[in-house]
Amino acid sequence: MTDHQNTPSADRNRSVVRWVLIALGCLCVALGAVGVFVPGLPTTPLLLLASWLFYKSSRRMQAWLLASPLGVYIREYERRQGMTLAQRVWALSLMTVMVAVSCIFFIDSAVVRIIVLSAGCVGCIVVGFVVPRAK
Question: Is this structure's pTM higher than 0.90?
C-alpha cells in the first residue's frame, strides 16, 4: 500500500489550502478593522473567524492577530465567552442608528440603500442571535 498523504500532489494541495485560508483570514481582519469604524459591519465575529482561519493555517499569523490592537476584541470575547448585554445593546443601537443615518442622508441610490439595509439586518441578526451572551 502507498501512503497518499505524503505525495507531492497532496503537499501541493495542503499548501494551496493553507494560502487560501491565510488570504481569507487577512480579508476577515481587514473587514473587522473597517468594522471598528463602520457600525453595521460586525467586528468581533469577523476577527474570531480570522483567528480560526489563522489557527488552521498559520500559528504565526494567529499570534500576530492576538498581539495586535484588534486582538483585544478576541481576548475580551474569549474571556467573557460572548458579549455582555450592555455590549449587545450598544452594538445593535449603534448599527441601527448608523445604517439609518447612512440611508437617509448619504445614500441616493435605492439599490445601494437596499444593500446597506440588508447588511445592517444581517449584522443585527448576527449580534442579536448568533453571538453568545457572556457568562
Answer: no
Boundaries of domain holding 82 = 4-130
- 51-56, Cβ contacts within 8 angstroms, sequence gap of 24 or more: 51/25, 53/21, 53/22, 53/24, 53/25, 53/28, 54/21, 54/22, 54/25, 56/21
Q: How far apart are CA 51 and CA 133, in angstroms?
A: 20
Q: What is the pLDDT of residues 21-62, one digit of tens each?
A: 999 999 999 988 888 887 667 787 888 889 999 999 999 999
Classify 2 as helix, strand or coil.
coil
Residue 70 in any domain: the answer is yes
Look at the chain and report how many structural domains it folds into. Answer: 1
In a domain, 135, yes or no: no
